[in-house]
Amino acid sequence: MLERALKTIPLGSQTFSKSKTAYPEGVSPHFIKRGDGSHVWDVDDNEYIDFVNGLASITLGYNDPDVTDAVKAQLEEGTIFSLPHEIEIKVAEKIIEMVPCAEMVRFGKNGSDATAGAVRLARANTKRDHVAVCGYHGWQDWYIGSTSRNLGVPSSVRDLTHSFAYNDLDSLDQLFKKYSDQVAAVIIEPMNSTEPNNGFLEGVKVLAQKNGAILIFDETVTGFRFANGGAQEYFGVIPDLAIFGKGMANGYPVSAVTGRAEVMKLMEEVFFSFTFGGETLSLAAALTTMTKLQQEPVVKTLWEQGRKVKKGVNTLIRKHNLGNVLSITGKDCWSFLIFKDTDVYSQWELKTLFLQEVFARGVLTLGTHNMSYAHSDEDITRLLNIYNEVFELLKEIIKKKNVMDKWLKTEPLVPLFKIR
Ligand SMILES: Cc1ncc(COP(=O)(O)O)c(C=O)c1O
């Protein structure tokens, strides 16, 4: 199927993270047929416990019955119209109810729509052009130009976006000094794999305020995952604007820009406008997902189940004495396996071998555990049993040295770019 796809679809995928750049060719499933709860089935009917979960967009589990029912009911009425629909107001009100910084809301389809919209809004509000970034913020020119994957982005655009380092307030301060009175926005993932140092997020807010820049939290992943009100609620640091995507609607394509009314109001003038804005199926999914988050212990479960994963992985790392090659970081609801180079093997060789072996045993992960409400204790026991076998193998290979060729049945992955 991959061969066939490659004839008509460059890369054979719409998304780098779903493509052969992330799933090593020949030892990975390349196409999924269906999902239910925490499990998915590939086109050869192999079953996997899924810890990727639609790149962290599935928070309740695949084909959640409540979400599916809400979408079916909305489908009977129609998907998009020539005027707005009441569901837009309901979801906006729900976000305002749940998210601390939210006073007004506009919707996009992907996280990238929302980050691009928020940055344009910040530029319009401040009448400044430069942007300070920390983390991953999507595919659009204004951001991706600042990474090594900047092919096709004009240098005049690239020159306006500057990265600063997480947990390094000084690196942000330097940007403010270098581009004095020119920085429109500071946009940051409040957290991904690394814990914020005490006072870091607060410090970012103080620096942004002091320098007249708008603070945007990119809560594409942390939103509706760290807490019902996102990382801003979890850490108690409230930005001017925040953007949400992924977990908003349990896998349906919708995102949001939200924040202080005073800043948001200019969305009436800023061009953030597209045909499928306000598409009702995704908004019906969003309303049901968010209501379920309020009524059931969804977030609590993501943390509890994720804690079992992290604890189990740490025990296995100790058991197999892999502490200098492997670690697990991030919050319980979104944790990351980090591989390190050894004297003979690169982290990419080790990670590729790890993926090959866990896929063969029925676990789908890209090294992260994007927890969902559907992950059962049985899933986690199975995951840890499989990791136990694969860590044993990694230990053996590391001990024997120069035997990777014998074990790895594909080429090692090549990093797309390093952000997290
Ligand atoms: C933190 C963050 N921001 C923005 C995006 C972009 O979202 P999308 O891929 O939906 O455009 C992502 C996607 O992975 C993300 O993780």
What would you note in describing this structure?
The chain is an alpha/beta fold and 420 residues long. The chain has 16 helices and 14 strands. It has helices spanning 2-8, 53-56, 65-77, 86-98, 111-126, 141-144, 155-158, 169-178, 200-210, 230-235, 261-264, 280-295, 298-319, 347-360, 377-400, 404-407; strands spanning 32-36, 39-42, 47-50, 104-108, 130-134, 161-163, 183-188, 214-218, 241-244, 255-259, 326-331, 334-339, 363-364, 368-370. Strands 4-10-9-8-7-5-6 form a seven-stranded mixed sheet, with helices on both faces. A four-stranded mixed sheet has the order 1-2-3-13. It has a three-stranded antiparallel sheet with strand order 11-12-14. A hairpin with a 2-residue loop joins strand 11 and strand 12 (334-339). Helix 3 (65-77) runs antiparallel to helix 12 (280-295) and helix 8 (169-178) runs parallel beside helix 9 (200-210). The longest helix is centred in the last third of the chain and has 24 residues, at 377-400. The protein is globular, with a radius of gyration of 22 Å. It starts with a helix and ends in a 13-residue tail after the last helix. The relative contact order is 0.16. The model has no long low-confidence stretch (mean pLDDT 97). The structure holds pyridoxal-5'-phosphate. Pyridoxal-5'-phosphate (PLP) is lined by residues 55, 110-112, 115, 135-139, 189, 218, 220-221, 245.
Feature tags:
16 helices; alpha/beta; 420 residues; four-stranded mixed sheet; binds pyridoxal-5'-phosphate; seven-stranded mixed sheet; 15% strand
